[in-house]
């Protein structure tokens, strides 16, 4: 995905109030990163496919009261107060809100589909999400669609993430919910009848 830092309309770091007042733009995804506007192209088809399929897998296994949502704006603290994770799991009633708060996020997921997005997802966003006490964060790596990977970040008692090494294939997890994720199924083209 093409990513570009953009000056705010005022030419200085953007405030949350200025960001929230921006007109809706369906051509790009907008976030605040380190006080600056970050403009990202909408997900390309392989990225979008992975998000849709992950949503289906996760939602089929979540307990009552929880739901996985795609591209919901998240309200964070710090210098990057507006992010749009590819997938978040939160209470079902967040559908009544304009954005999800960090304290409502049970799981945030980013899909890395290029080297540039990988740097941001594995490093920058991991630090931001840990600082906002998001207990569970995943990065799904689609850079090599023949070997889709999952790296799991779990908040520890030092307020940093413990990182579980990259896994491939089918992964069974117990936190934040019992889930089994078929990583291979996230990337392949849809087949007839499937």
CATH superfamily: tt1808, chain A
Oligomer kind: single chain
- CATH architecture identity: Alpha-Beta Complex
* Unreliable stretches covering 5 or more consecutive residues: none
Kindly report how far apart the N and C termini lie: 27 Å
CATH fold name, please? tt1808, chain A
Spatial sequence of strands, sheet with the most strands: 4-7-9-10-11-12
C-alpha-based Rg, rounded? 16 Å
Largest pleated sheet: 6 strands, mixed
Q: What is the overall number of helices?
A: 3
Helix-strand topology string: EHEEHEEEEEEHEEEEE
- Total number of β-strand segments? 14
Count of domain modules = 1
Task: Record the SSE blueprint.
Layout: E1 3-6, H1 16-20, E2 28-33, E3 36-41, H2 45-59, E4 66-70, E5 74-75, E6 82-83, E7 87-91, E8 100-101, E9 107-112, H3 115-131, E10 136-141, E11 149-155, E12 161-167, E13 170-173, E14 179-182
Parallel strand pairs: 5-8, 9-10
Antiparallel strand pairs: 1-3, 2-3, 4-7, 5-6, 7-9, 10-11, 11-12, 13-14
Domain Putative restriction endonuclease: 17-178
Organism: Nocardia lasii
GO molecular function, one term: endonuclease activity
């Amino acid at each position: 995905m093409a990513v570009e830092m953009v000056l705010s309309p005022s030419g200085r770091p953007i405030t949350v109030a200025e960001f929230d007042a921006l007109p809706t733009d369906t051509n790009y995804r907008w976030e605040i990163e380190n006080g600056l506007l970050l403009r990202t192209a909408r997900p390309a088809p392989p990225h979008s496919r992975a998000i849709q399929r992950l949503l289906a897998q996760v939602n089929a296994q979540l307990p009552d009261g929880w739901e996985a949502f795609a591209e919901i704006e998240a309200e964070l603290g710090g210098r990057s107060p507006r992010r749009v994770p590819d997938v978040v799991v939160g209470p079902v009633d967040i559908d009544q809100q304009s954005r999800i708060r960090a304290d409502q996020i049970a799981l945030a997921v980013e899909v890395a589909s290029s080297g540039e997005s990988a740097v941001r997802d594995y490093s920058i966003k991991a630090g931001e999400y840990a600082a906002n006490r998001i207990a569970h964060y995943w990065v799904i790596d689609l850079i090599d669609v023949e070997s889709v990977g999952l790296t799991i970040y779990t908040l520890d008692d030092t307020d940093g993430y413990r990182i579980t090494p990259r896994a491939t294939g089918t992964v069974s997890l117990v936190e934040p919910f019992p889930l089994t994720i078929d990583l291979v199924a996230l990337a392949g083209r849809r087949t007839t009848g499937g």
